[in-house]
Structure prediction request, 321 residues.
Amino acid sequence: MRPTTKLQELFNRKGRVIIGAVVGCALDARIIEMTGYEVAHISGAMTAATVYGLPDAGLITATEMIDNARRIASCVKIPVICDADQGFGNAINVRRTVQEFIRAGVAGIHIEDQPFPKRCGFVKGKQIISFEEAVGKYKAAVDAKNELDPDFVIIARCDARGTVGGSVEEVIRRLRAYKEVGVDVVYPEALLSREEIRQVRAAVDGPMFCTLGFIQPPATPDELVSLGLSLWPEFGMIQARVQAYWEFANDFKVRGTQAHDAWEKHAWNHPVPHTFDLVGFPEVAEAEEKYLPVEWLAKYEGSRGLYEPRKDKRTEPQKPF
Prediction:
């Protein structure tokens, strides 16, 4: 089944929420796939931070975002959703944006109704474009995907609630119009309560999800199903990685090699695969054995290394890396 078809199926599944594990790079996506998640969700904020060290303030170009999406989609088999900001221009630009994401191999994208430059959905200072311009952009997106892959998932993100004077009523008005031109999924950003989620859900048909930063106490996956949501975009995995990196960097600055020794002792007993296993070194070794001359494979005999890529030749655990 094609990733786009699979993603359509997941969004229209009843009684179970998709955990959209948020990723910023290809290694993140490999981990997500190996740990059994159904969807990798590329965040614009995490791409900006992880790949470019920049804030999510409209500084990433379409080419940079699509290139990262292509790298991620090419290394996993699960469907990939990607943040496409505001489509990187007007309705005419949106057509090409959609087509290039399809060619990059992702299964769906979300486009927000903000102006250029956009603002991260979690950050104050957001604005939105006019109702008429927004409707035209989503119509262009739907037409573009239907020309190349009708199963490609177009997600309309509405940021109206987080603007000055923004209201749930304006969110509903816009999402209904976006659905009328054919978007597959609606994504109201920055709803403030469970009651607001219910209000939008009752007024707008079709698959829907939203971020949950304002929802307290936090919702459970079962509760999201009862609220009528289809996907939970989980950002905690990226934050956990940043926190672990920060903690080790500061520990090593204070304790030096003692910090490394303590980490290595812990790593020997940790279930995470070796990094080289995560990125596919064993598959390279299998391909070598299948396609290369026997004499070429002799390089393995007598050579030295801390890592053995041939799983069937391993006689001891691989040293943590």
User: Anything to note?
Assistant: The longest strand covers residues 18-23. The two ends are 35 Å apart (CA to CA). The longest helix spans residues 236-255.
